[in-house]
Amino acid sequence: MKNIQIAIDGPASSGKSTVAKIIANDLAIIYLDTGAMYRSATLVSVENNTKDFNEIITYLRENPISFEKSSVFIGKRDISNIIRENEVTAHVSEISAIPEIREFLVEEQQRIAGSSSIIMDGRDIGTVVLPNADLKIFLIADVEERAERRYKENIERGIASNLEELVKEIAARDEYDSTRQVSPLKAAEDSIIFDTTGKSIQEVVTFIEDKIKALM
Ligand code: DC
Fold first, then answer.
1. Scanning 15, 30, 187, 198, which has its CA 20 to 30 A from the CA of 126?
2. What per-residue confidence (pLDDT) applies to 1?
C-alpha cells in the first residue's frame, strides 16, 4: 500500500475520533488525536494556573506528550481521563486559540506524521496540518445529537454531565473554535463534507473507507 494521509475535521463530538480510530485499526496505520494534544496543553495551563504560552510550551518540552495504544501521556503521567474532565473542556478553546501554542503543536503533529500513513482528527488538519492530505473529510452533525453522544461517552467515562448544559457547551465551543483568528474550524475547500446526523458509526466508517479504497 502506498502511504496515505487522511484528515478528519469537524466540530466537537461529530464522531471524528471514534471513526478515525476504527479506520486506523482496519488499515493498520497511525492514528493521531490532535484534540488530545490541545487538551494536554490546557491541563498544563489549568494545573499550573498559567496562560503564559512560554511556560506551557517549556513544560511540554520537558514533559512531552506521547500516545501509547489508547492512552495519552505528559512525560510519564497518564492523563487520558483527566483531559476529558469538565475543567479542561471548559478552557480548551481558549488555550487552543493561542497562536504560539498552535504553532508548537502543529509542528509536533507534522513531525509525527512525517511521511507515514496516518489518519489525524482535529479542526485544522485539512487546512493547516496536512494541506496535502490524500483525503479530507469534514464531519458535521446536529448539536443535539452531538450532545447526546457526548453525554453517553461521559457516562461511560464516569464524568458527571447534564444534557442541556452539554448542548450549550458544545455550541459555545463550536462558535469559539470557528471564529478564532488562527486556524479556525472550517472545511478545507477540497474536503468532503459528511453529515453524520442519524448515521451509525459503521455507516460513517464505510463511507470513508469506500473513499480510501477509491484512492488506492
Ligand atoms: O476534538 P476535541 O473536542 O478533543 O478538541 C478539544 C479542543 O481542542 C477543541 O474545542 C478545539 C481544539 N482543537 C483545535 O483547536 N485544533 C485541533 N486540531 C484539534 C482540537
1. 198
2. 63
